[in-house]
Structures are given as structure tokens and as C-alpha cells.
Amino acid sequence: MGNENPLLVQIQPSGLQFEQVPGQSLLQSGLRAGIRLPNSCRNGTCRTCMCKLFTGEIAYQIEWPGLTREEKAEGWILPCVAEARSDLVLDVPDAVDLNK
After folding, report:
1. What count of other Cβ atoms lies within 10 Å of the Cβ of residue 54?
2. Is the dihedral of CA 70, 53, 36, 15 positive or negative?
3. Please, which residues have CB within 8 angstroms of residue 80's CB and are 6 or more apart in sequence?
4. Nearest-angstrom CA–CA distance, 71 and 82
5. Closest residue by Cα to residue 64 from 46, 81, 88, 86
6. Residue 25 and residue 82: Cα distance in Å, rounded?
């Protein structure tokens, strides 16, 4: 894992960004960088964190997160149980920069 380029997650419309931490969810990776995405249950059922994936590829940490097939097809994801597999651009209007 030493010289791999880190995967970058960009948040729109704020322009905030953070790196995917291997083995952690997008939500956890964001929090580690001081960026809070909306969340509640953190296990893929409550849908509080649901957001749109503009570009990139993710993988889920659980078999079937709380999204319908239609929602998945429209690009909705649950960051609390997802990891980046490429650089991402997410639409999260309520993201908060905790570093300010």
C-alpha cells in the first residue's frame, strides 16, 4: 500500500475534499479530515447520509444498503457504509467543515 496515490473525495457544492482512508467508510474518512457529512445510524439503514454520486466508483461494506434499485441506478449512495474505489465527487449540500 506504500506508494499508491490516495483517493480524493470532493464534496459539492462546498468544494471541501478529503482522502479515502483504506478500510474506513466515506463518512469515517471525512470525519477524520474534519468534514462532517450528515449521519445518524452509520449502518446503512436510516438513510440520513444519502447523497448523490456525481463521478467515481464506490464499493459497499455491507451486502445490500438501504437503497432501492432505482435509487442506486440514479446514483444515490450511503457514505456511512461505502468506500471510494476511485476519486469521487459527491453532492452533499449539508457537509460541514469542522476545521473552521
Report:
1. 12
2. negative
3. 25, 26, 27, 39, 41, 42, 43, 44, 49
4. 15
5. 81
6. 5
Residue written as grid cell 453532492: 91
Contacts 24+ apart (CB under 8 A), 68-72: none
The type of residue at 38 is P
Residue 53 backbone dihedrals phi, psi, to 5 degrees: -95, 110
- For the stretch 15-62, pLDDT in tens is 999 999 999 999 999 999 999 999 999 999 999 999 999 999 999 999
* CB 43, CB 21: distance < 8 Å: no
d(Cα 82, Cα 88) in Å, to the nearest integer? Answer: 12
Is-above-0.70 flag for pTM? yes
CA 12 to CA 10: how far, in whole Å? 7
